[in-house]
Amino acid sequence: MSFKQYNPAVIAIAANTLGFKKSVSINEDGSLNWWFEKDHPTDKQMLDEIPNAQKEYNEKGPLNL
Amino acid sequence: MAITKLKALGVTDGTLTNTQINASAAIAKSKLGALDIVNADVNASAAIAGSKLTLSNDQITRDNLDTKLNQLEPVWTDMVTLSSANHTHQIIDEYGRRVNAQNGNNGPSGRARIRGETGTGNFRVKFQLGTLWGWSEIHFAVPSNYNDATKHNGGDYPTYHTASQPTGKIHFFVANNGSNNIRYFNYWNGSSVSTQSTVSGGTSNTMNIWRSDGTIYWYDSSSTHTLATSSTDNFIVYAGLQSPSFVRLLDASSYAGKAQ
């Protein structure tokens, strides 16, 4: 599954909402890089959350923690 | 028949051969016809004066430069912006010593490289990495695996490596952050990740990466790791920034033949 079409800042908001507070990024092949963490949201959970995250991003911009 | 004595009658045209000219004969250039000297006629050890050469810019390659002209200098250069960063974002600050992207999680960011190259001998880079949500990274890539922002028109990864695991080429980096709260290094030897170590606890304390007599070390601010031995590669050094993060350069030098 590729997440390349999404803004990385939106990905960060979605992950944070799903309880993942650590670094997440998009690999060159479009997959999500959870780095060394084994407990993280699934791709399906992320896809479901992205519309809400996009709305939050549009209103507030990148997450500042 | 060898000529032993010339008489008044002279020499018939076409009878003198090369062997009949004395080895020490100083034949004036004006007595020679149009010369057609080609590259192969010039002795390999000929010391041709620089004033006799006219080189175009594209003939001056990295390998032809004196390594001193291209040694590391403690300043960031070749900056590019990423992730929707624009003119309102400052990526290089602290008078050229820090690359910085603190614009929210995965927000606007950039990249830059350290001016110069390590050379093939001893070098040293002393730096601090941000301990923030995003990864603060310092990378070392061989020039053939480096995507030069000044030579390529954008692309996905300018001022960055072309491949993170290039076949047959060395690439290594150190990264640090506060959200995973770790610091680690990763050394790709051209065919596999030969060494990787994760150290618990992100830190913005001073770190060093240096090469001394072919061995590359990383001081992670509490202990020293050996990344490689018998290393002779020339590296370009650059920063990767995942907002929020930073890399502060404290010093950098490449000085073959001197202990670092």
Number of strands of chain B: 16
Order of strands in the sheet with most strands of chain B: 1-4-15-6-9-10-11
CATH architecture assignment of chain B = Sandwich
Overall radius of gyration of chain A = 11 Å
Number of helices, where a helix is a run of at least 4 consecutive DSSP H or I residues of chain A: 2
Key descriptive features of the protein:
heterodimer, A: two-stranded antiparallel ribbon, B: 260 residues, mainly beta, Jelly Rolls, elongated
Ordered list of secondary-structure elements with their pairings:
The complex is a heterodimer of chains A (65) and B (260).
Chain A: H1 8-17, E1 25-26, E2 32-33, H2 43-60
Antiparallel strand pairs in A: 1-2
Helix pairs in contact in A: 1-2
Chain B: E1 76-82, E2 92-93, E3 98-101, E4 109-114, E5 123-129, E6 136-141, E7 146-147, E8 160-161, E9 171-176, E10 182-188, E11 193-200, E12 207-212, E13 215-219, E14 224-228, E15 236-241, E16 245-254
Question: What can you tell me about this protein's structure?
Answer:
The complex is a heterodimer of chains A (65) and B (260). In chain A, 43% of the residues lie in helices and 6% in strands. By secondary structure, chain A is mainly α. Chain A has a two-stranded antiparallel ribbon. In chain A, α1 packs across α2. By secondary structure, chain B is an all-beta fold. Helices cover 0% and strands 34% of the residues of chain B. A 7-stranded antiparallel beta sheet of chain B has the order 1-4-15-6-9-10-11, with no helix packed on it. Chain B has a 7-stranded antiparallel beta sheet with strand order 2-3-16-5-12-13-14, with no helix packed on it. Chain A binds chain B through residues 7-9, 11-13, 16, 21-25, 28, 35-37, 61-65, and chain B through 83-84, 103-108, 133-135, 156, 164, 177, 179-180, 182, 184, 198, 242-243.
